[in-house]
Design goal:
The complex is a heterodimer of chains A (231) and B (88). In chain A, helix 7 packs across helix 9. Chain A is mainly alpha-helical and 231 residues long. Chain A folds into two domains: 104 residues, Orthogonal Bundle (Rna Polymerase Sigma Factor, Chain: A); 96 residues, Arc Repressor Mutant, subunit A. Helices cover 56% and strands 0% of the residues of chain A. Chain B has 88 residues and is mostly helical. Chain B has one domain. In chain B, helix 1 packs parallel to helix 3. Classes of the chains: A mainly alpha (231), B mainly alpha (88). At the A-B interface, helix 2, helix 3, helix 5, helix 6 and helix 7 of A face helix 1, helix 3 and helix 4 of B.
Chain lengths: 231, 88
């Protein structure tokens, strides 16, 4: 199973279904199994990943995904191609996951995603020169170099470090970084699928990326404090 | 005491850069904000490193993407499809 994958669709406007997508939709409306398996190949992994943002276990996430596909089948005759197919499918997942998360009584309900706010700086304030001092707000020390070449990084625990950092994010940040940086979606489509405002999407993405970078920094930095600028 | 290059810009701080790094990469800054940031970057090694690490982080996150569908899940979905097809 090696579908072309949604990355190829990135340049497409998320507002409407592409001709390629319409072909799949029409196939599915004609009950063609091949159209269904192609959609599954394209989106199942991404759906599972997004589902894991909102429910506790992989088993429940897989149930949510299964329920999503049933929703796709049951809704396909009414789909008119006014949004992209994947936006539509991921929105179904979002709604199924919401219901499921409420039922599961998750500590952070999905419905709070839009209002998910965190206060406070993402980097330790002591990394910057303090108030009232000369060069206030500038690096106390430069961020240290990351020595490892990328190829080695991928084969190493860094992948696990990133996975763990993403898993530790609050649901909104995790959902946004999943669609934007793992699945490669654009901002508009992400807002659409998650029912988020543009501003919130940006804030959540910023916080998520900053935290993942920090996790990598802690893992990779040659010297914990980087190159000291003070002398 | 700190020793800094004589031409280091004081009006845009490293702390600010950290706050807008993602917006900058997303090309969401206004032209004037972008200009201030880029002027700062030209003179600040720390922020250049920081932004490069942010880009690298985003690339590495992208590598987590998988296409794989487990056989079990796949077979379950095919059964669901055939049931649906018969019923509709």
């Amino acid at each position: 199973m090696s579908p072309a994958g949604p990355r190829q669709g990135e340049a497409l406007s998320p507002a409407t279904a592409s001709p390629e997508e319409l072909r799949l939709i029409e196939g599915l409306q004609r009950r063609e199994e091949r159209a269904f398996t192609e959609l599954v190949n394209r989106y199942n992994a991404g759906l599972t990943r997004l589902a894991l943002t909102f429910v506790r276990s992989r088993a429940v996430a897989e149930e949510v995904v299964q329920e999503t596909w049933l929703g796709v089948l049951n809704g396909i005759d009414r789909f008119e191609g006014r949004s992209s197919v994947r936006t539509w499918i991921f929105r179904i997942l979002t709604n199924v996951a919401k219901t499921r998360a409420v039922r599961e009584d998750r500590s952070v309900p999905f419905t709070d995603l839009e209002s998910e706010t965190e206060e406070g700086p993402l980097l330790d304030p002591s990394r910057f020169v303090g108030q009232g001092e000369r060069w206030e707000g500038h690096w106390q020390w430069f961020p240290g170099p990351w020595g490892e070449p990328e190829e080695r990084l991928l084969a190493s625990e860094a992948r696990g470090v990133i996975e763990d950092a993403i898993a530790a994010l609050p649901p909104g940040q995790r959902a946004v970084i999943t669609l934007r940086d793992i699945e490669g979606w654009d901002a508009d489509e992400t807002c659409n699928a998650l029912e988020l405002s543009e501003t919130n999407q940006r804030v959540l993405l910023h916080r998520a990326r900053t935290k993942v970078r920090l996790a990598l920094e802690i893992y990779l930095e040659d010297a914990p404090l980087g190159r000291q600028r003070n002398s | 005491m700190r020793r800094l290059a004589a031409n280091e810009t004081a009006d845009f701080t490293c702390k600010e850069l950290v706050e807008v790094a993602s917006d900058y990469l997303e090309e969401r800054l206004s032209a004037s904000e972008r200009r201030r940031l880029e002027e700062h970057l030209g003179e600040c090694e720390g922020c250049t490193t920081y932004l490069e690490q942010m880009r690298r982080t985003i690339r590495l996150i992208g590598d987590l993407r998988e296409e794989h569908v487990s056989r079990e899940a796949y077979e379950g979905l095919i059964v669901a499809f055939r049931t649906w097809k018969q019923a509709t």
